[in-house]
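Work Package 3 (structural annotation) set out to generate three-dimensional models for the target panel prioritized at the project kickoff. During this period the team completed the workflow that converts sequence records into discrete structure tokens, so that structures can be stored uniformly alongside our sequence database. As a representative example, we reproduce one entry of 174 residues exactly as it appears in the project archive.
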Amino acid sequence: MAHPLKPRNVTQAQSPNLPLWLLIGLPGSGKSTWAKHFNEFERPFQIISTDQIRAKLFGGEAVQGPWMEVWHCVVQQFHHSVLQVQQGVWAGAIYDATNSQRRGRRKVIETARTAGFTRVVAVWFDVPMALCLVRNQQRSRQVPPDIIHGMNRHLVGAPPHCDEGFDAVYRLCF
């Protein structure tokens, strides 16, 4: 059975689609776990993760080094992903970050389209903050609760919407 959010065996010859799936949700909402499982299907997506980038740049996922260094790597990976999709290596890319602020999401969409992505889809993990806080406490790398509360305020005040420039918004409620 096909995954409901997974494109079916699409090749570059069949479609000029160059998709970027932008994950949105609080720490502990299940974004990274979902991305890993999403990639268990036919042609995988490249996962571009700000946690993984911070680990490479600064020696740990929790190390909040200069954002511009992280963003520079994200932009490079966007461009590389577009080339890899065009060559048939990947079916698309997944941008795994919290993306809680509307202004930041708009910047990601603009940058993704400039890099060559033709379709930008939001996958919003609408998970209760209380559950995210519990999951966060169970992790070895914890995000301070006040940071999660702030991200939640951003998402409640400005939830993802197609008006931001997304081609589609999928809301996954848990």
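Residues 19-173 form a domain with the Rossmann fold fold (CATH 3.40.50.300).
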